[in-house]
Predict the 3D structure of the following.
Amino acid sequence: MKIKKILIVLVCLLTSLVPVKIMAQGNNNRFDSWKTSAIITPEAKELKPAGNIDVAFKQFAVDDIVIDHYDIYIDGQKVNVVFADGKDILKTSVYLTKTDYYQLQVVAVTKDNHEFSSNIRKFQICKKGLNIDDKAVNTPVANMQESWYYNWSYTPSTNVTGSKEFVPMIWDENSLSWLESDQVANYTTILGFNEPDLTNQANLSVLQAASYQDLFTKTGLRIGSPATSYPTNEWYQEYGKTVNMDDIDFIPVHIYYDWAGEGMAQAFLEAIDTLYQLYHKPIWVSEFGVANSGLYGANSNYDEAYKQISTYLKETIAGLEARDYVERYTWFNFDDDDVNGGKTALYDQQTGQLTDLGKLYKSLGNPNIEGIDLNDEYVEDAGYYIDLDKMISKADELIASSDYDQYINVETFENILNQAKAIDRNLGSSSQFIIDDLCKQLLDAYNSLEKQTVTPELPKEDKVTKQTELSNSSSVATGDTSNVLMLMLLMLISYSGFKLVNK
């Protein structure tokens, strides 16, 4: 029994001397850091105003892989191409005006046409905005799910809730110096003069307004022309003939009627269409509403007031949403005690609370995201085999070389090479670590190969001497420690086995 125990111990000891290679495999894919964090803007779930949507993303920088360009996709359709350069952050823009949610994807394409896909980024587009008079509003206005706002100034308001894009305005010629300030760099868009055709507003002649156009153009911002009290009046028509309309990116519009009854929403939309046909420029309806002290003022007793106003609001917004050339709109907010338009107020300027009309406005013009998961989605790409294939070619070249038969202990190298050639070629990016691990094993095995040592031929007299020395030496040559120990153990096992059999 003791002999059996000794045998078991010796076998365990013997096997512990045999080298075993254990590969630690994890799923830390080298491309996932870029894939999951490439897109910087728009942010996930973000509500953006319609028009030009800025897109920023990280340069693909993984190992020595060279990217040729990036394809930009919206809802699965390629809309732009950005060529790689040395910048860490790359930028472009896409033009979207339909109120909806969208799926953005950036695909990095190598010179040999391998593709690495970013996460799918979901964001929302909305045309609806807010105008707010900071001289009259004393408290933050309740959210109406609008995506942008302006306040007839170039200084952002402190009374707007949530994260909304602020669009500065050059109200009149006294504000022009701002166009040469450092603050311009914080914005992408600028609104031009406010109703220059009226003496109690910006009060500028066509020639005066046109003379300042270069100051707007030099900012590099997207420029909205002056907004007149009616879009196709004589002042604006003359302005359109005086300036180079190529310097104007969009046309802000003000339209007010004194009646909101049947047919007025259609009249409103026809006025918008007429302006577009004249200039073929995108349109922002930056002020629209109805005002009539006898019908819609704060002191009016007109029973049909809310019904008419709410119907007019719904019909005009539906029409603006249906027109791709309309980028943005915002209903003008009279205070609820205003004698001309109190019943058209969206919110109380003293409390910020929404009126019934404001609650209606909040419910209109929103992206339909019911049941939609707006979180990022991981995209499974085809596995990247190029590094592995290069390593396989390198190994094959060595095997085909004339001196390959001089290498020793090639079994491990050849086994790994065969595994590499037999790897599943349908692995996706989530299994990239398997491909990369096998590539590393093959590289390590390649680098571990050694050529056998060739003993120099001895002269004849040295051979006789050497043979004499060998015959006088121990019958067991001394090698490295591990070989001697293994030999002794094997002899002991054989002897113990012999004794066990003969017992």
